[in-house]
Amino acid sequence: MSNNTVAKAVQEPATVLVTGATSGIGKAIALGFAKNHLAIAINGFGKDEEIAAVLNELKAAGAKEAIHVPSDMSLAGDIDRLITTTQKKLGSLDVLVNNAGIQYTANVEDFPAEKWDQIIAINLTSAFHTTRLALPMMKERNFGRIINIASVHGLVASVQKAAYVAAKHGIIGLTKVVALECAQQNITANSICPGWVLTPLVEAQVSAIATKDGINRDQAVEKLLSEKQPSLRFVALEELAALCLFLSSSSAASITGASMPIDGGWTAR
Ligand code: NAD
């Protein structure tokens, strides 16, 4: 293929699915795409009025369209419906952001087997299903961007996070395989590896430190950050959204198979 042919094939995305976008990082990423006027599908749990509020926020921010597809990412049948419905209602699926995730902390010997299964299902296996189901249409259109929200815990470990660390290391491996298999089809796959970001998932860990150490919330935040994140500040949600937008653009066509820390220096130590 000549360079000219490659240049012509590159296009900007029009449609995106962000999983787990009723809260935290996923919601912020969806808002970033909304500001760029993409048509957006989200899933994630929440009360009807909370989900309606997120969809209204996306539309107010500029989304061409915003839909919520009810689906539990631990269920393969639901994921099938999520991808089919998204492609049908939006007309295509140019960008897939695998973001839905959960956390549970315990030492390995105390780790409940059902929590292990749940974390592997939601944080890892769901991305396998969404990816395998989204790829045929991406290949047909000769365009695709797959962005997996991994974690610093895809690169390094922390105590008491066996299932989470295993799932996040796994999703980085999956990303690399997809990148290799799609390298000549204008489809990229990359992992983003955030450090601490202040979302409900982390707020629960702040509360746990405060309770365990008998300290207040501010002290617990300081302890959490100083143990791992040299910047001593949370990664901003907008920074993650901006990185996703860049990775989705035609300018990022040659970035594939990468695992990008966005962690205030956590993994530089
Ligand atoms: P969050 O708890 O604020 O949001 C999680 C989202 O996933 C919610 O919308 C929730 O409804 C959805 N979700 C959970 N289980 C689901 C299921 N079974 N089916 C469908 N949706 C489901 O969490 P967050 O902090 O925004 O985390 C988002 C992603 O970012 C996760 O993959 C997490 O591992 C990753 N991450 C977070 C941090 C951080 O510091 N917050 C750091 C690194 C990576």
Structure description:
By secondary structure, this protein is an alpha/beta fold. It has two domains: 3-196 and 236-268, NAD(P)-binding Rossmann-like Domain (Rossmann fold), CATH 3.40.50; 198-234, no CATH class. Helices cover 50% and strands 13% of the residues. It has nine helices and seven strands. The chain has helices at 3-9, 24-35, 48-61, 76-90, 113-141, 162-181, 200-213, 217-228, 237-248; strands spanning 15-18, 39-42, 65-68, 95-98, 144-149, 187-194, 259-262. Strands 3-2-1-4-5-6-7 form a seven-stranded parallel beta sheet, sandwiched between helices. Helix 2 (24-35) packs parallel to helix 3 (48-61), helix 2 (24-35) packs across helix 9 and helix 4 (76-90) runs parallel beside helix 5 (113-141). The protein is globular. It starts with a helix and ends in a 7-residue tail after the last strand. Mean pLDDT is 95; it is low at 1-8. Bound molecules: nicotinamide-adenine-dinucleotide (NAD). Nicotinamide-adenine-dinucleotide (NAD) binds next to helix 2, helix 5 and helix 7. Nicotinamide-adenine-dinucleotide is lined by residues 20-26, 43-45, 72-74, 99-102, 122-123, 149, 151, 194, 196-197, 199-202.
